[in-house]
Amino acid sequence: MPRPDGRLNHDIDPQDRGPQDACGVFGVWAPGEEVAKLTFYALYALQHRGQESAGIAVSNGSQIMVYKDMGLVSQVFDEATLASLRGDVAVGHTRYSTTGASVWQNAQPTFRPTATGGLALGHNGNLTNADELESWLAERPGAQPVSHKVAMDSTNDTSLVTALLATFEDLSIEDAAMEVLPRLRGAFCLVFMDNDTIYAARDPQGIRPLVLGRLEKGWVVASETAALDIVGASFVREIEPGELIAIDRDGLRSRHFAKPDPKGCLFEYVYLARPDTTISDRRVHSTRVEIGRRLAGEFPVEADLVIPVPESGTPAAIGYAEASGIPYGQGLVKNAYVGRTFIQPSQTIRQLGIRLKLNPLRDVIAGKRLVVVDDSIVRGNTQRALVRMLREAGAAEVHVRISSPPVRWPCFYGIDFASRAQLIANGLGVDEICRSIDADSLGYISLDGLVGATALPKENLCRACFDGVYPVEIPLSERTGRHAIDAGTQPALDLDEPAATPTERRPQPVEA
Questions:
Q1: Do the annotations mark residue 434 as ligand-binding?
Q2: Annotated catalytic residue within 23, 82, 189, 284
Q3: CA dihedral sign of residues 96, 98, 103, 108
């Protein structure tokens, strides 16, 4: 399944990528249900949050099986694999790496044996105090007194959390979580499980979304409400910032490990979340349409047609057309089948760039003054190629409108923006960017306009990529580019046999 904009991480030149988000997580407790299949379909709904790898962990009450591999959900799992993952509790994950290399060892859920069985964990976000946690792990009784690179099976901050939870041999997983969670800094939505219980936790700022849903015979937690819809779960509520929940045969329990200080990611509304997802009681699609309306008010222009850059620009383009009175139309066709491929494009094909994904409808745009609505400009390469393509197709004028403010600061909370030196808005003003991409005019929605479209108080939103105000302190090691831990070589888990070493079973890639 493509990202919200129809693009896939694997098929975009690194110099041409937009912002990439970290991961999607899902958990289910549902005795008697096919929890692996429920998780599989939920991960389909969350595929846009990461396409590097996918994994599912399932417990049958006595052991945990984890199956994961590089690739899309449809490439990693088949009917036979899902049939082998039997149990009542499951955790699923789709990954895009912001910490740790994009290798099989770093696929999630991660696993650690514990004193009472096993622990599997999936994470969406990015921790900013990994160095501090690494030092704590080295001091913990039961942990090897060496760097986590040796003590763990992978090299991302998720494994750091998993390993720490497993060191509290005298505590239940729930009580261990109450010891570990207050020590975590940054953005984290965790969904984890032991042999018979599902757990979910959200950072005190609630930077990334995490929701709770109810099945007829169980419970689910997910990164977005769209995943609840696809498995037939009813929305109950959002997991609160600073909250830990546990679900087992005794029901649902809730504990708070930190005081809530809401700072939800503003970019979720612009780009990251699916348009059919609800965040803070508001449908993302409605917010994006309102962004477009406000954008039209802030940057009007005389034109003949409003067209979106599909798909993430579509709702804002609809709103722009409604507010401006300029007709809305489809001027670009997206190739829905540009997916992950094992065949690298030739240099000639690579130079075509955006044409691999978008193609203009010449008879629609020829001779027209166009308003082209997109979600963001990061490096500017995509917009430059897009404007050139539209002019070659006969557009009389190209006016670019962006449904987010200029991105001037990197994200340390789970979005893989370019470095600050590569962000075009960091070095150039709006007029200079307009000339750089060869547009006739360029307008970004204001920060106040974007915040107003969400109907949330400004102080309850993380706006760091736009204004440089980070709600969680960023250590110097992160500010200077620490986004990866040295790659490890030990294969990741697969089977938890209590009182025995897990059997390793690496799945074979499924080529689609």
A1: no
A2: 23
A3: negative
Is 411 among the annotated ligand-binding positions? yes
CA dihedral (365, 367, 368, 369) positive or negative: positive
What's residue 105's pLDDT?
65
On whether 375 is known to bind a ligand per the annotation, the reply is yes
Torsion of CA 199, 200, 204, 208, to 10 degrees: 160
The residue among 278, 193, 269, 181 whose CA lies nearest residue 496 is 193
**Three-class SS of residue 393?**
coil
Residue type present at position 243: E
β-bridge mates for residue 199, sequence order: 192, 246
The residue ranges of DSSP E strands in 311-360, in sequence order, are 332-334, 358-360
Instruction: Give the model's confidence band at 490: pLDDT under 50 very low, under 70 low, under 90 confident, else very high.
Output: very low
265 assigned ligand-binding residue: yes
For the stretch 15-72, pLDDT in tens is 444 454 468 999 999 999 999 999 999 999 999 998 889 999 999 999 999 999 988 9
> pLDDT tens digits, residue range 327-385?
999 999 988 765 544 455 666 666 667 777 899 999 999 999 999 999 999 889 889 99
Examine the residue annotation and report whether 434 is marked as an active-site residue of this protein: no
Helix crossing, 157-166 with 173-180: angle to 10°? 130
Domain definitions of the chain by residue range:
22-263, 284-458
Token pair 């954008």 in the structure block, residue: 295
Q: Tell me which fold the domain 284-458 belongs to.
A: Rossmann fold (3.40.50)
pLDDT value at residue 103: 55
Distance CA 53, CA 462 (A): 27
pLDDT bucket at 115, cuts 50 / 70 / 90:
confident
Q: Are 42 and 227 in contact (CB under 8 A)?
A: yes
Residue 467: pLDDT band (50, 70, 90) is very high
Measured distance CA(7)–CA(14) in Å, rounded: 13
On whether 13 is known to bind a ligand per the annotation, the reply is: no
Alpha carbon distance 261, 247 (integer Å):
24
- d(Cα 512, Cα 510) in Å, to the nearest integer? 6
Q: Is the pLDDT of residue 104 over 80?
A: no
Residue 326's pLDDT is: 98
Q: Nearest-CA neighbor of 423 among 375, 381, 463?
A: 381
Give, in words, the CATH class of 22-263. alpha beta
Residue 189 assigned as binding residue = no
